[in-house]
Each structure stands twice: as structure tokens, then as C-alpha cells.
Automatic annotation (TrEMBL):
Keywords: ATP-binding, Chaperone, Nucleotide-binding. It comes from the Bacteria. NCBIfam families: PRK05218.1. Gene3D superfamilies: 3.30.230.80, 3.40.50.11260, Heat shock protein 90, C-terminal domain, Histidine kinase-like ATPase, C-terminal domain. It comes from Hymenobacter lucidus. The lineage of its organism: Bacteria, Pseudomonadati, Bacteroidota, Cytophagia, Cytophagales. This is Molecular chaperone HtpG. Pfam families: HATPase_c_3, HSP90. Belongs to the heat shock protein 90 family.
Length: 609
């Protein structure tokens, strides 16, 4: 018996469209066909468990083979198989409706979203026609007394269906590879594709006599069954040549959505490494993509690992995905899990947590900055480190500095350095006053400081060199000046002349005689604006685009040098003032080039004078 028919379909020219627009993703045909074979095999196993299939399951391997001479790729399974009637129903009707749905969706979209749909649409059986100009199905149902069937189709809407000889139950899909798809006749190419998409499929896949997959990847197991080594080993399988991860989270939820996976915290050496190893997204152990943007919260993109969820809609455009309720829930769930894990690590092993802080800190701060819920959880375990290397939580630190570092307005002033080496003299000056100095020199710290100032009550952050020590934390007490007002004005003029630089605002201040004769500071507000601008803040920050660096030069009225400058002759006072100013530049790391050479020479002269 042979039957010829026409596949009922409203879109006549479906194949050219499939072929043309799925161009970049032709390789997924193999994923689609192998996962169909796996599905058919699992269905048979379930029927066995239900007692509806009483035969021997036997070897259930799915076999993929290629015959270069004959130009065929064959995917064979020993699953439940199809009768001729079922082929008509499932292949001619159902599979086609999937393909025509694709074309319909595709037509509705504008050009920008078209690209996105194309990559994401599971094309199912008909994706075979992306690489084949003729496809055959040989199938025999598991049901007793049914005949094997043979279906062929050349990619038009015409098909033939006839009875066939097939001893064993299951399905063979034979692709006759089209002339423009020769690459898929190369075993190495097929192996690469299988490795990418089928590496963790739940039924064994055999290619060239070898099983290429792990049927029970560790994310499908219970955490209690697994050791640390298992997790590290799996990480290294996913990302060969990577350093071991810091720690990981095993995700497992089945209500209100289904999701399993393992998220690893990598050891990040530099910023460039962030996105090198991406999170891989699976749907029932079939690899889908490693473009998980919108499915995983932005700040978690720094993590690595796998997420497996059949509830993530894969065949829709990005903009739809963002609005999708399931995706939103997944986002919230993952964020919560990650925060809980970090809280647990902090609680159970504070020392270990501190040791990992240089790697984890960036991630925690990124999370706090980008997600309010995460902030609320992380504020209890986010750590601050001072220049002595000691770690504090936010509340511990506030407690620690509040006796000494409250200004006259009851504001707690937190002092920090962005470079303990370069700002050394300022750090020491603060410490001499009994103040503590935090190290806030990480990538996101300038943003993090801004956030803490908003969230914490009555707390201000100032970099150690933002002002002279007395003004960094303003107290009620004032230091009296030993100079008269006239002398102060004169001193200001003498220094302005010696410095002669409009970017340097000279002011005379009554500091302690122990402080330096001249101190150059960088006002906090202006510096932050410039920092943000440098960090690419863009937008509103652009108006500061033309701002020069701005410095304040504080001349210490109570330092003996002030008296000497005032009492020296013209030349002598200029020399002294310049020397004292250069010392201040030196302390700020600003003395360079010609000015540095002149300073060295002048110093030698002064030594011999
Ligand atoms: N190897 C196979 N063995 C048994 N039935 C199969 C096999 N391949 C396909 N089928 C049947 O054909 C149907 C259509 O397959 P197709 O791949 O187009 O869509 P799907 O698997 O239902 O969905 P998806 O778009 O996710 O692949 C399947 O649902 C299944 O019933």
C-alpha cells in the first residue's frame, strides 16, 4: 500500500522561509531530532512503568550515524514508535502546525525582533529541512500487531506514506543532506553539535560507537548525594581550564514553577573575565542557549553554571520574555536563593567569608546596587575592610566609629581611601587623630558609597584627602590662628603668586603646628562628579564634562614655615612657599615632570644653603 498526500497547511512556502531565516542556527536540527528520539524513548519507559507496555525495554540508546558516501544522517531510537496513522497525525499535522506557527509569528514581528525569534524557536521535526532536501521516517510502533511505516517528504508539501519492513520497534529518521549543507556530513562537526546540545540528555546517545552524554548530570541529583568534589568536577567539565569556583548554590524548586540548576561563584581575576564563562540554559536537560539575559537577573550574570527549566518560554521574543510572569518569578527566586546562600556562608563561617570577600564583594555590591530586595538581605552581611585589614559589617562599623567620628551635626563621617599607598600621608594624619580609615578601592565602590549614604541615616563618606583633617570631621572646637588677619592675607597672596595656577584654590587655615605646612585636598563633591564621569556615567554628568580637576591648597597658619615665608625677603619667600607647596604636591602624588626636577634641585640647594 502506498499513499500520497498533501500536507494540509495554509502557508505554501514554509520551507524556503524556514531555510532562509534559520540560517545562522541550522545546527539545531540535530538537537530537535535527538530530543524527539529521547522523548519517544522516555515515553516508552513511562508506559513500561504504568504496565501499558509489557515487552522488554532492552538497549534504549539513541544512535546517531553519518554516511558520507550516501550523504545521509540517521537518528535511530527504540522508543515508542509511530504507526502510519500516527505519522499522519503527529508529523503531517502537529509538527506542521508548529512550523506554520513559527512562520505566522515570524511575519508579525518587526525586523529587530525577528532575529531573536529565529534563534529561540524550537522548530521541532521540520527543522530537518534546514539541512536535508529529503527526509525519510521508518517507524514501528511498540503496540502489538501494528505494521511499520515509511514516510518520505522532499521538503514540498507533498509526502508519501507506505508500509515497510522494520523488525525492531522505534523510529529511524534518515536525512538526505542537501548540497549546501555538506558541513553536516563531517563527523567532527556532528560531534561538536552533539556535545553542545545533547551532552546531558537523559537517555544515552551513541555516536561513532561512543556514548557522548551524561544521562544524570549532577543538577538532577539531590545535594545530599553529592560531594564538593562532584561540584568542582562538574564545573571543570562545563568550563575546562578554569580555576575552581569559590562556592555554589544548588537550585531546586518544583512549585510554582519548575527549575533546577547549579550556580557557581567564580574566582574573578579581573573585570574582563566576568562574562567569559556563561550560565547555560537547559530545558529538560537539552541545551538551549547561553544567552540568559532577561532570564537571570542582570547582576547574577557574573555567576556561572546551569539552569534547567521547562517553564521558561523559549519560542518567544525577548521583549515578551521580560514581561513573562514565569520569568519574573524565576528571577525573584534565584535572587533570594543567592542572598540566602551568602547569608548562610556568613553566618556559618565568618572567617571563610572574609577570606572570599575580595571575590564575592564585587558581586554582592553589584547586587545591592541593582536590586532593592537583594540590598535588604545583603545589608546584614556586606563587609567593609579598613586599612588595617579588619572586616566589619555595616552596623559593626557604625558602632565602631561613632564615638570618635561624629561631627558637630551628629553626622557620622566615614573616612575612606581609594589608594592607601598614594593617599598615605592623609591616612596617617587621620589615624593620628584616632580616626579609622576604610579601604574602598574596588570597581563599584564609588557607586556603593553613594548608595550607603542614601540608605544609612546620618552617615557621610569622605575620602581622607577631601579636606584638611580638622574639616574632614568638623567638631565644635576650633584651632586659633597665631597670625593676624593682615598676615593671613599676605600669606595667601605670597602662596598664590608662588603657585600661580588657577586650578589651585589657596586658602590660609589655622591647623595644628604638627600638621603639614601646606596640604592639598580634593573636594569630595567635585571629585565624585569627576569619578562618575570617568566611569562613564554619561547622561546628566555630561554637564561636568569640561570641569578641570579642582584642588584646594590649605596653607597652615600655625606652622613655623608660615612665619618664615612672611619674614623672608621676596625671593626667599617665593622659594620657601614653592618648596612647601611642592611637598604638598608630593604627598598627593601630583608632583611630576619639570616641577619634580625643579623640586629636587631646589631641595639640594636648600640642603647646602
Ligand atoms: N522519534 C520519534 N518517535 C516517536 N514520535 C515522534 C518522533 N519524532 C517526532 N515524533 C512525534 O511527532 C511530533 C511532532 O514532533 P515535533 O518535533 O515537530 O514537535 P514536538 O516534539 O511536539 O515539539 P517541539 O517543537 O518541542 O520539538 C511529536 O510530538 C511526536 O509525537
Amino acid at each position: 500500500m502506498q499513499e500520497k498526500g498533501s500536507i494540509s497547511i495554509h502557508t505554501e512556502n514554509i520551507f524556503p522561509i524556514i531555510k532562509k531565516f534559520l540560517y545562522s542556527d541550522h545546527e539545531i536540527f540535530l538537537r530537535e531530532l535527538v530530543s524527539n528520539a529521547v522523548d519517544a524513548t522516555q515515553k516508552l519507559k513511562s508506559l513500561g512503568q504504568l504496565g501499558e507496555f509489557k515487552g522488554e525495554l532492552g538497549d534504549l540508546k539513541v544512535k546517531v550515524s553519518v554516511d558520507k558516501e550516501a550523504r545521509t544522517i540517521t537518528i535511530s531510537d527504540r522508543g515508542l514508535g509511530m504507526t502510519a496513522e500516527e505519522i499522519k497525525k503527529y508529523i503531517n499535522q502537529i509538527a506542521f502546525s508548529g512550523a506554520s506557527e513559527f512562520v505566522e509569528k515570524y511575519k508579525e514581528q518587526d525586523a529587530a525582533t525577528k532575529d531573536q525569534i529565529i534563534g529561540k524557536f524550537g522548530m521541532g521535526f521540520y527543522s530537518a529541512f534546514m539541512v536535508a532536501d529529503n527526509v525519510e521516517i521508518f517507524s514501528k510502533s511498540y503496540q502489538e500487531g501494528t505494521e511499520a511505516a515509511h514516510w518520505t517528504c522532499d521538503g514540498s508539501t507533498e509526502f508519501t506514506l507506505e508500509t515497510a519492513e522494520k523488525a525492531d520497534r522505534g523510529t529511524d529518521i534518515v536525512l538526505h543532506v542537501a548540497a549546501d549543507s555538506d558541513e553536516f556530513l563531517e563527523p567532527a562537526r556532528l560531534r561538536t553539535i552533539l556535545n553542545k546540545y545533547c551532552k546531558f540528555l537523559p537517555i544515552e546517545i551513541e555516536f561513532e560507537g561512543e556514548v557522548i552524554n551524561q544521562t544524570q548530570p549532577i543538577w538532577t541529583k539531590q545535594p545530599a548525594e553529592l560531594t564538593d568534589e562532584d561540584y568542582v568536577k562538574f564545573y571543570q567539565e562545563l568550563y575546562p581550564f578554569s580555576e575552581a569556583p569559590l562556592f555554589w548554590i544548588h537550585l531546586n524548586v518544583d512549585y510554582p514553577f519548575n527549575l533546577t540548576g547549579i550556580l557557581y561563584f567564580p574566582k574573578v581575576k579581573d573585570e574582563l573575565q566576568f562574562s567569559r564563562n556563561k550560565i547555560q540554559l537547559y530545558s529538560r536537560q537539552v541545551f538551549i542557549t547561553d544567552e540568559v539575559k532577561d532570564i537571570v537577573p542582570e547582576f547574577l550574570m557574573l555567576l556561572h553554571g546551569v539552569i534547567d527549566s521547562p517553564d521558561i518560554p523559549l519560542n518567544v521574543s525577548r521583549s515578551f520574555l521580560q514581561a513573562d510572569a514565569a520569568v519574573k518569578k524565576i528571577n525573584t527566586y534565584i535572587t533570594k536563593k543567592v542572598a540566602d546562600k551568602l547569608a548562610e556562608l556568613y553566618r556559618k563561617d565568618r572567617t571563610g567569608f572574609e577570606e572570599k570577600w575580595s571575590d564575592v564583594g564585587l558581586f554582592v555590591k553589584y547586587g545591592m546596587l541593582s536590586d532593592d530586595k537583594f540590598y535588604e538581605k545583603a545589608k546584614d552581611f556586606v563587609l567593609l575592610q579598613n586599612t588595617a585589614g579588619k572586616f566589619f559589617t555595616l552596623s559593626e562599623y557604625q558602632e565602631f566609629v561613632q564615638a570618635n567620628q561624629k561631627d558637630k551635626n551628629e553626622q557620622t563621617v566615614v573616612l575612606y581611601t581609594t589608594d592607601a599607598e598614594a593617599q598615605h600621608s592623609f591616612v596617617v594624619a587621620a589615624q593620628d587623630r584616632g580616626y579609622d580609615v576604610l579601604k574602598l578601592d574596588a570597581v563599584l565602590d564609588s557607586h556603593f558609597i553613594g548608595q550607603l549614604e542614601q540608605k544609612l541615616e546620618k552617615v557621610t563618606f569622605k575620602r581622607v584627602d577631601a579636606d584638611t583633617i580638622g574639616k574632614l570631621i568638623e567638631k565644635d572646637e576650633t584651632t586659633e590662628s597665631v597670625l593676624s588677619d593682615d598676615d593671613k592675607t599676605k600669606l595667601q597672596e605670597l602662596f598664590s603668586k608662588a603657585i600661580s595656577n588657577p586650578q589651585m584654590q589657596v586658602q590660609v587655615e589655622a591647623l595644628s603646628p604638627q600638621d603639614a605646612p601646606v596640604i592639598i585636598t580634593v573636594p569630595e563633591f567635585m571629585r565624585r562628579m569627576k569619578d562618575m564621569q570617568r566611569a562613564g556615567g554619561g547622561g546628566g554628568m555630561q554637564m561636568f564634562g569640561s570641569l578641570p580637576d579642582s584642588y584646594t591648597v590649605s596653607v597652615n597658619a600655625n606652622h613655623p614655615v608660615a612665619q618664615r615665608v612672611l619674614s623672608a625677603d621676596d625671593e626667599g619667600s617665593q622659594k620657601l612657599a614653592r618648596q612647601a607647596f611642592d611637598l604638598a604636591l608630593l604627598a598627593q602624588g601630583l608632583l611630576k615632570g619639570e616641577a619634580l626636577t625643579a623640586f629636587v634641585k631646589r631641595s639640594a640647594d636648600l640642603l647646602t644653603a
